[in-house]
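Before the break, one more example. Copy the sequence into your notebook; we will annotate it together after we see the structure.
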Amino acid sequence: MKTCLCLLSCLACGTLVASTPDPAQILAASPLRFEASPDSDTARYVARGTRFHFSFTAQEADFERNGKNVRLRFQGANRDARIEPIDKLRSTTNLYLGNDRAKWRHAIPNYGRLKVQGLYPGVDLVYYGNAGELEYDLTVLPGADPRKIRLRLNGSRAHVDDEGNLVAGLIQKHPAAYQIAADGSRIPVSSRYSKNADGSYGFQLGAYDRQRELVIDPVLTLSTYLSGSYEDISYGIGHDKIGFLYIAGTTQSTDIPLAGNSYKTTPGGTSDLFVAKVDPNAAPGTQIVYSTYFGGAAIENFGGMAVSPNGDVYLTGNTASADLPLVNAAQGALIGGFDAFVAWFDSSQNLAYCSYLGGTADDFGIGVNYDSKGLIYVTGGTESDDFQYVTSGYQMTRAGQQDAFVTVFDPSRDTASTIIYSTYIGGSGWDIGRGIAKAPDDSVWVVGGTYSSDFPLIGSSYQGNYGSGGDAFAIQLRPNLGPNSLLYTTYLGGTDQEEARNVLIDPAGRVILSGWTLSSDFPVTLDAMQRVYGGDTDVFVAILSSTGQLVYATYFGGRGGESAFDLKQDAAGSLYLAGFTVSSGLAVTPNALQSSYDGSVDAFVLKFDPTKPGPLAIQYCSYLGSDGFQIAYGVDFDQTGKIFVTGFTSGPIFDAFGGAGKPSSAGNRDAFVIGFQPNQ
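Here is what the structure looks like once it is written out:
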């Protein structure tokens, strides 16, 4: 019997959609991965996702979604039958939930199928599935009696509807039965559900050859009302030196408990982080190498991610959970309503370091990076007067409503001593750090937004005057200098509002930053890709020399408004940006994946060469959109020229490319990852 459970939602690690021919190579949704349940003494296996939880023993299966539970029990099944996993996969699952290490699980083996041999005399059962679809085969061996099979569904009131479907909170569609002929063709056998006197259901079959195996093939689907209010967003993407991709984001729900080793949702909503490692060159259905769920009992929000060439993953964000999983923590307890956190998963996917970071007010980690010495650099915003371990930094007290902060960790030390530098940075207004990067000279650059007319100015600032309304800022620090660590600061902006979101340092030590601006007089250079303000909100990209002087700046955008959330640079010096747009008429290239604006909120991806003037700089530009909202939060690339984009969609973003259909209801936000090779 083959049964298909079609979920109306996506996987936790984003919708990883199947590879298709150019122009779009879309990463495939992973197969269901079965694993032993670590919290059960019995032979129980689970298949988990943020939107579903399946649990299996030899005699029954439980399906949970939207707080509703349906149990499929094989009544009268052999009590001595054993369930066993088969087809071991390359992937594993890690679970770091809560601060009780005894409940942490690392490298749980994943399997492609579960098998129950001898469920009934002469009847075997196999579970498997793909992309959130559960299937099972019941094979009736020659001479066995299919009347032994009895299904009992415990959920909503079970009944057979007018179309012959078996309905009980989920739907088992009218069954099809067949046998395999000697030439491999299928010989159909008439079949339908029949209700037994004890309330269970079996199969009424027509004539068939009892000397051949028989397969009965109903389709099991969830009823449409089971679509929930989940929100899954993929925010970060990076790659290692081998070519594996790493994707991170958040998954939320206000109306469904995540069972097993996951946390329970609350009426106000809750959120966990996820990290997935993906092999984009693997066969469809096998791309996910591992996935890790990370969080405590309350709320975690994603701030930033960095990926090292060796595959180390660094995360920051903020949390309201008092039981965050901690390792060698500098700060061992939640102090405020929300504290920042920093976490490091090593290349073996072990949680190697995790700490809170904050004071008694709210704190937010937004940017994170690392260096070759193993140090971790974090920036964000704090409203706390007692932000932790600010003892030797440039600015010892909070100056405004919210200050930026910069904190450096050395995980090779012990607990509190792992924080080796921490400082406030800010004026009397509101300031926030968003991007952080280490320079070749061992200094650290931080960018963000300031709404302080008295933001501290040090060195030969490119722009010494506050432009009003809010400016981007760039600062250079050398943490080992303690109180003298601030080397350079500058405002960057026009007479309206802007913030910088991302920063990277090129091999020559130049500082490249991106962000958004509302200023029609942003200081663009003569060789800018776009010298004229498009309108509403534009993306900006600026390049500062190693001494902080502006050498390049450009707008990018149309009349409707744009914002970019990620910035990357390849070995050739090309820059990649991704974000969202509400503008028609962007400067898309002839090889664009999608050449026109969809009319709502579309994602966009841009690749350009800042050494070329004007429109000649644009190497690739495309919309990515459909009905609803699409926002790209992350962009990456590989050595072959493929571009990878991640974010969220509330519409069927892949329909136009022949990719996977949207797994959840219209308007629901689903994470996505798309990879494609631009045609030349």
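The two ends are 48 Å apart (CA to CA). The CA atoms of residues 100 and 292 lie 16 Å apart. Try to locate both features in your own notes.
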